[in-house]
Design a protein that fits this description.
Blueprint (H helix, E strand, L loop, with lengths): L1 E3 L5 E5 L4 H10 L5 E6 L5 H12 L3 E5 L4 E6 L6 E2 L1 H6 L6 H9 L1 E5 L12 H9 L3 E4 L3 E5 L7 E3 L5 H11 L5 E5 L5 H12 L3 E3 L5 E5 L8 E3 L4 H13 L3 E5 L7 H9 L3 E4 L3 E5 L9 E2 L11 H8 L5 E5 L8 H8 L3 E5 L2 E5 L8 E3 L3 H13 L3 E5 L2 H4 L5 H7 L3 E3 L4
Parallel strand pairs: 2-15, 3-14, 6-7, 10-11, 18-19, 22-23
Antiparallel strand pairs: 1-23, 1-24, 3-5, 4-5, 7-9, 8-9, 11-13, 12-13, 15-17, 16-17, 19-21, 20-21
Bound molecules: uridine-diphosphate-2(N-acetylglucosaminyl) butyric acid (EPU).
Amino acid sequence: MVIEKSTPLKGVVRISGAKNSALPILVASLLADGETVIEEVPILKDVSVICELIRHLGAEVILDGEREKAIIRTDGIKVFETPHHLVKQMRASILSMGVLLARCGKVRISMPGGCAIGIRPIDLHLKGFQKLGAEINLGCGFVEASCRKLRGNNIYLDFPSVGATENIMMAAVLADGETVIENAAEEPEIVDLANFLNEMGAKISGAGTKIIKIEGVKNLNPCNHIIIPDRIEAGTYMVASAITGGDVIIENVIPCHLRPITAKLLEAGMMVEEYENSIRVQGKKPINPVDIKTMPYPGFPTDMQPQMMSMLCIASGTSIVTETVFENRFMHVGELKRMGARIKIEGRSAVIDGIESLSGAPVKATDLRAGAALVLAGLIADGYTEVYDVHHIDRGYVKMVEKLKNLGAKIWREEA
Ligand code: EPU
């Protein structure tokens, strides 16, 4: 992607369905036989990979890009193995474990390796399955789990992992008896998955709090569901407006999901107005320096940390950004420095000395949100910024170039 220094962004942008809701919900559709219809499915690379996985496991999937809709037809699960080429492409493939255990009583999955933002183990997922009665075998590069029948139990998560909470919830819905997940993740995507499962006939209560209770049922039925809006895509456009001194209305959002981001933008001196399904962000100068610490929801989302850092590069003072969720999520720092940013990493914190302006440079997207941060930096950097490896951005942002162009940004794609 090539980005030329842009004038303040103005206009209206519509947010797509949440990637991190769509992925577990598409997998969870395998828990019932029949036809499930999911709307507001963001048409993204990661969604295509999860659809390929579902097809591999035996379902028929129609992904209607025009209507942003997925139709999944299931008639029993034919395969209980998730192959390496899918897990390698997308870590969220491990979300198939809970579903396969619940439906087939066994699963074999290639181990997800390290990734750009950290080691990301799956120990909490496995401990949860063990508590439900599964036997776990770790082989060379794969993990197997099997059980006669899953039995509900109390599971305490050492850390409120989003993926572990989702995987355990999907396994527990068909288990015998009650499962209680303590210290569960509280992210809106967990609530969306729980709502979907309840629409299928599951009995889940407490999603969105630290304690989730799941009363196992005998079987689930297919249903229709609408995915919630993507709070991270919304947050990215909020920062795009703020960083360029723009005035943008971001439509199709749930404003309360955006509060941690709104709070930091207000602290930075921006104007933010909340409406029922939209939010307006007006950028103001100077940008006040702000300290940020990423935390599980309702704390400040790690998935917005790189984008906020781009904005703080041109704040009128020193900001400190502390990353507590992932151990290696500062890959964008080196690239922002190539654009002239003054950032020092000290352990898990980055100290950012705000400067007048950034300069365009060739930079590399090392992961999805790092890529988004570089695009935002490119909007205010003098000259041209070339962002390479933008396939990472395509994993999580629907039509980013088109949406930014509609707001007046000077951005386009070039063949490498
Ligand atoms: N962790 C463990 N053991 C586990 C699971 C997680 O130690 O068994 C650690 C991880 O290594 C990490 C932390 O716990 O340091 C948080 O991981 P979590 O399991 O909560 O994250 P995830 O489920 O792998 C989801 C999102 C990520 C988002 C995180 C945190 C999806 C598909 N992915 O990942 O989204 O950053 O939650 O909110 O839902 C993105 O969209 O760019 C993205 C990376």
